[in-house]
Amino acid sequence: MVLEFAISLVIAFVVVVAGSYLGSTMALNTFFGRNFDPAETGQFATTNSTSDDKEQ
């Protein structure tokens, strides 16, 4: 009985984690319109234009 409870608890945890991952992936794909990779966020950083670098 304890073994069945432990196995069902592990299965429930895996289902929740997999569902969270799939749900967040689908939401990010909808929001950004493409596959979202958090490691690529550096390419979206804004750069200063040359007019911002000029001294007054």
Mean pLDDT: 78
Compute the CA-based radius of gyration. 22 Å
Count the E strands. Answer: 0
Residues in helix, %: 55-70%
**Fraction of residues in β-strands:** under 5%
Verbal overview:
The protein is mainly alpha-helical and 56 residues long. The protein has helices spanning 2-32, 50-53. The longest helix has 31 residues, at 2-32. The chain starts with a helix and ends with a helix. The model has no long low-confidence stretch (mean pLDDT 78).
Q: Topology of this protein?
A:
Blueprint (H helix, E strand, L loop, with lengths): L1 H31 L17 H4 L3
Provide keyphrases for this structure.
rod-shaped, mainly alpha, 2 helices
In short:
The protein is built from two helices and no strands.
